[in-house]
Specification:
Layout (H helix, E strand, L loop, with lengths): L4 E4 L5 H12 L3 E6 L11 E5 L5 H11 L6 E4 L16 H27 L5 E5 L15 H21 L5 E5 L3 E2 L2 H4 L10 E2 L1 H13 L6 E5 L9
Parallel strand pairs: 1-2, 1-4, 2-3, 4-5, 5-6, 6-9, 7-8
Helix pairs in contact: 1-6, 2-3, 3-4
The chain binds NADP nicotinamide-adenine-dinucleotide phosphate (NAP).
């Protein structure tokens, strides 16, 4: 896979920022979407763009920056968590709506807006950063209704996109990135002690490895950062 243009959402902090930095260092031109574009990595290869994934005009603005150029890879990282221990009593329509808007609808709309540019590329890959908590099969703890349901929706969206876009040669990688050493991850205490917190720089490298490995599932199935398929 040779370097080209990549679009990343959530590039102001956390995993999105690390992905933007990593690929820019590898020679990619990174169109880095962030709600606060001044927080994206200050690298010559990075083009900061203001992006709230709930805002249709902002999404159209990212597509306008791409213009008639091609996009090799879209990495949709932006996401919100409803909080450690958010339980049944914490379910509020506003929290559900916000989680669905950011975690499910935003990635779908961003992908739709960039389809013409992805079709013009060679790599033709969408990476949806989902999460293990979106897996119904692996849910043994309950709670986190907004986060779990919105990431399960993203998993369903990833699968449908992969099926619908296969004829265009566009693949979808639906990724559980691991338990991340970020603002979101640090607020979380994992009830399963066999999981270790991982640095975002390492996950950015893993994403590159997944993109370069022809064996990586591009059919929208939920996979971990080593490429193993997880239950939906
Ligand atoms: N942390 C974990 O352990 C873990 C585990 C599994 C999956 N994930 C997933 O991995 C992804 C990255 O997580 P992280 O740990 O890096 O989270 P984080 O540190 O909390 O960062 C979240 C990112 O999403 C952006 N964002 C939130 N709402 C947005 C919106 N409406 N429009 C655009 N951007 C928005 C934030 O931008 P602002 O700076 O503007 O708020 C920030 O860049 C998320 O999708 C998350 O669900 C994380």
């Amino acid at each position: 896979m040779s370097a080209g243009t990549m679009v990343v959402s959530g590039a102001g902090r956390g995993l999105g920022r690390a992905v933007a930095e990593h690929f820019a260092e590898q020679g990619w031109q990174v169109i880095a979407g962030a709600r606060a574009p001044d927080r994206v990595p200050g690298h010559a290869g990075v083009i900061p763009v203001k992006l709230d994934v709930r805002d249709a005009d902002a999404i159209a603005g990212v597509a306008a920056v791409v213009g008639t150029g091609s996009v090799e890879v879209l990495v949709s990282v932006a996401g919100v968590f409803d909080g450690v221990g958010a339980g049944l009593d914490d379910v509020r329509p506003e929290a559900m709506t916000r989680a669905f808007a950011v975690n499910a609808l935003g990635p779908l709309e961003l992908a739709r807006a960039l389809l013409p540019a992805l079709r013009r590329g060679r790599t033709r890959t969408i990476v949806m950063v989902s999460g293990l908590m979106g897996s119904i099969g692996l849910n043994e703890d309950g709670g986190n209704y907004a986060y779990r349901a919105s990431k399960a929706a993203l998993n369903a969206i990833s699968r449908s996109l992969a099926l619908d876009l296969a004829a265009d040669g566009i693949g979808v990688i639906c990724l559980h990135p691991g338990w991340l050493d970020t603002e979101m991850g640090r607020g979380w205490s994992d009830p399963h002690s066999d999981h270790e917190m991982v640095a975002v720089s390492e996950v950015a490298r893993d994403i590159q490895n997944l993109l370069e490995d022809p064996r990586t599932d591009r059919g929208g199935r939920l996979i971990d950062r080593r490429g193993a398929v997880l239950p939906w």
